[in-house]
Amino acid sequence: MRARVWSWAALAVGIIYFALPLIGTVEFSLRKRRGEYSFDAYRWVFEDPRFRETFSYSVVMALFTIAVGILIVVPTAYWVRMRYPRLRPLVEFITLLPLVIPPIVIVFGYIRLFNTSSVLPLTGTATGTNVLLMMGYATLSLPYMYRAVDTGLRAIDVRTLTEAAQSLGAGWGTILGRVILPNVLVAVLSGAFLTFAIVIGEFVMAALLNRPAFGPYLQLIGANRAYEPAALAVIAFAITWFCMGLIQLATHLSPHSRARRS
Amino acid sequence: MAFLELEALDKSFGATPVVRRFDLAIEKGEFVSLLGPSGCGKTTVLRMVAGFETPSSGAIRIDGRDVTGLRPNQRNIGMVFQAYALFPNLTVSQNIAFGLRVKRVGRAEREARVAEMLSLVGLAEFGGRYPFQLSGGQQQRVALARALAVEPQVLLLDEPLSALDAKIRVSLRDQIREIQRRLGITTIFVTHDQEEALSLSDRVVVMSEGVAQQVGPPFEIYSRPATRFVAEFVGRLNVIDAVAGEAGDGVLRTGDVEIALGRPVPPGPVTLAMRPEVIGVGRADGRDLVFRGRIEDVHFLGSVIRIETRLGSAPLFLDTFNRPDRPPPALGEIGEFSVAASDVMVLGPGGSAVKVR
């Protein structure tokens, strides 16, 4: 009985810890108009052209980052599992590096390596800087993407499926595209979702590379206005949860993955 | 020239030899089983034929073409795995069509072929299902259909029945053999189950420690085992240590029992071997060796009664058919047993790779 009381108490503390700031933010974001609740702050945010510009910029960057991340991570994780299991600790270490190297260090490295007087002057053009920023995002999301995909690969018998496909005449492209990727799609989606969240909120890289991303915009509004940052935070949360819902839906709609979990 | 030729195959993993000097020639349409305990190299041989392992030395030829250096997807072989290995994200029909799509077979032809394969394995109604909606036996039939859809030159079956329960195993076994005969496809079947190997195959290769111990039709493997390993691995065997007399006239002693084989046996210690079913209860014409023993145990198995007794000090099993008019003998009774001298195999001392007879 005592144990039960304590576990309820722990749960309550947890809920308060997570929910209270959120409730406070929502409440505050509704108080722009004096004396009553209103959506004025939200209206201001949605009417601000910079919100639309920076947000759509970040979304496009996120989609590219996800595509590049999948192209890099899925074949790598697959090859490590299939052919070079001994390299696994090394590859895992590399994928974890972005967690211990601060983004500011990475981006300073980028600027030094790819500046206009370097061999590959990516920072000389907007497109080049966008590519550089996207690569930076891909690096930041590497730990999450790799973990997710590797876990997904663990759930299927990669070797036997590969051999079955090979004996049916399939080459590597077909095996990866038609056998491996569809079977780790749910894992890839969860990696993609994390990537999306990282890219939308990222500040340091975008700011130092001077690109019009959502992160710097958030910071700008936060520094200059009172209620709108709260509204922006709530919007960001809503988008995040919407993405999570989409992943749940995708998981639910694909029949074979539903079976594998049961 | 044989259709599928394996010539002097050697395979080592690191310093460990797994397959040694393996030769085998298989005719077109033949069903050959590789039989042996786990770790004997049978699966490695199969995987070398499939192209998943590269031989350390030796050659593999299919229909006169050297395929040793070809990748698996260039070999035109069909393979069925123990773990089914169906693609979980594809339906049964899509699984079967996979190899055809890779080959860029047109849609109409592909669909016709899938329908044909589905009815071949008796799953015509199941095309739209996903693998997880099928039982193990059904999944393995889909795997077979998928392997056969691309019309491979050789069909490789890697312990396809091991994951199934006993009843399904027997019915699928018969189905595999029936389909194989109907299509006339050259087949290699890997198993550790002697009953499967004996009942299915045109020829059986018994393997031990990477070496083919004996190659022959099931009847020959069982009746005339070439080595002690084959004799003991295939079927049950009574093994009795005996000493042949100085005269070399075929009179042997084991304990205080004397056995006259009636054919010359070189003097010294020998091992006698008898299948349980060649020994009978009581005397009979042609079973000229008669001995007595206490009945130590009786296993009633339905159609067969397995009796445990002793010859001298060696335990002896014998199998007799159950007959309604003759109840099984009682425990502790002294019974009389007989066997034809020609059914007693003489194995040399030591026991490894010694010719019988």
Structure description:
The complex is a heterodimer of chains A (262) and B (357). Chain A has 262 residues and is mainly alpha-helical. Chain A has one domain (60-257): MetI-like (MetI-like fold), CATH 1.10.3720.10. Chain A is 81% helix and 0% strand. Chain A has 13 helices and no strands. In chain A, α3 packs antiparallel against α9. The radius of gyration of chain A is 22 Å and the shape is globular. Chain A starts with a helix and ends with a helix. Mean pLDDT of chain A is 89; it is low at 258-262. Chain B is an alpha+beta fold. Chain B folds into 2 domains: 4-232, Rossmann fold (3-Layer(aba) Sandwich), CATH 3.40.50.300; 236-347, OB fold (Dihydrolipoamide Acetyltransferase, E2P) (Beta Barrel). Helix content of chain B is 24%, strand content 34%. Chain B has 8 helices and 21 strands. In chain B, α2 (92-102) crosses α3 (107-120), α2 (92-102) runs parallel beside α4 (136-149) and α3 (107-120) packs across α4 (136-149). The longest helix of chain B is centred in the middle third of the chain and has 18 residues, at 166-183. The radius of gyration of chain B is 25 Å and the shape is elongated. The interface between A and B is medium-sized, with 25 and 32 residues.
Defining traits:
heterodimer, A: 262 residues, mainly alpha, MetI-like fold, 0% strand, globular, disordered C terminus, B: 357 residues, alpha+beta, Rossmann fold, OB fold (Dihydrolipoamide Acetyltransferase, E2P), 2 domains, 5-stranded antiparallel sheet, 8 helices, 21 strands, elongated
Question: Ranges of chain A with pLDDT <50 over ≥5 residues?
Answer: 258-262
Largest β-sheet summary of chain A? none
Residues in β-strands, percent of chain B:
25-35%
The residue-averaged pLDDT of chain A reads: 89
Shape designation of chain A: globular
SSE pattern of chain B, N- to C-terminal: EEEHEEEHHHEHEHEEHHEEEEEEEEEEE
Keywords (chain B): ATP-binding, Nucleotide-binding, Transport
Protein name (chain B): ABC transporter ATP-binding protein
Pfam families (chain B): ABC_tran, TOBE_2
Domain ABC transporter (chain B): 4-234
